[in-house]
Backbone:
């Protein structure tokens, strides 16, 4: 059986991503594979190439034939030179620059904006604090009120509820009592 190292296409339309696979030469391009030994993503800048070098060396050693595209990829990674014993085994693989930390970028931008902001744009007129009405302070009992004064005020309120404070005044009646008295005065028709 002839074994090939070839590319298996993955990904969406116009966003090709490949897996480097070892497969029977008679299988379809995206068909069944014996083993996956790497990935290749040409749309990234620089292209992302990941190859399991040990497995690639094994399969090349047992006679697997790479396709032209895979042979070019193996030259870039240096695996082909290692297999043939040629110079340049380090390959010419370019590594993408590491992505900056998002938090550090945000903090730097915020600091820069804060420092470079125009004073007129930064200074906003402050709203005056809302003052409490003077009546609210008088209505709320203060914590410094002596207990004797509170006790006297309570006794005066209790006396007002029990009976009339002055002679000749009628005690206050509730609305229910007033309505009942009004119905009793009217003659029945």
Residues:
């Amino acid at each position: 059986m002839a074994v090939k190292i070839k590319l298996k296409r993955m990904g969406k339309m116009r966003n090709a991503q490949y897996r480097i696979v070892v497969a029977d030469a008679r299988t379809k391009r995206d068909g069944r594979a014996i083993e996956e030994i790497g990935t290749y993503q040409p749309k990234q800048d620089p292209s992302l190439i990941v190859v399991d070098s040990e497995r690639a060396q094994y399969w090349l050693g047992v006679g697997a034939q790479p396709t032209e595209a895979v042979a070019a990829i193996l030259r870039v990674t240096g695996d082909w030179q290692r297999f043939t014993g040629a110079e340049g085994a380090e390959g010419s693989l370019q590594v993408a620059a590491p992505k900056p930390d998002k938090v550090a970028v945000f903090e730097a931008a915020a600091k820069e904006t804060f420092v470079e902001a125009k004073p007129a744009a930064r200074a906003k007129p402050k709203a005056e604090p809302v003052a409490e009405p003077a009546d609210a302070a008088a209505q709320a009992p203060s914590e410094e009120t002596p207990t004797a004064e509170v006790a006297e005020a309570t006794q005066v309120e209790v006396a007002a509820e029990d009976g009339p404070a002055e002679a000749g005044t009628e005690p206050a009646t509730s609305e229910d009592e007033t309505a009942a008295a009004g119905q009793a005065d009217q003659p029945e028709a």
In short: The longest strand covers residues 3-12. The chain is about 40% helix and 15% strand.
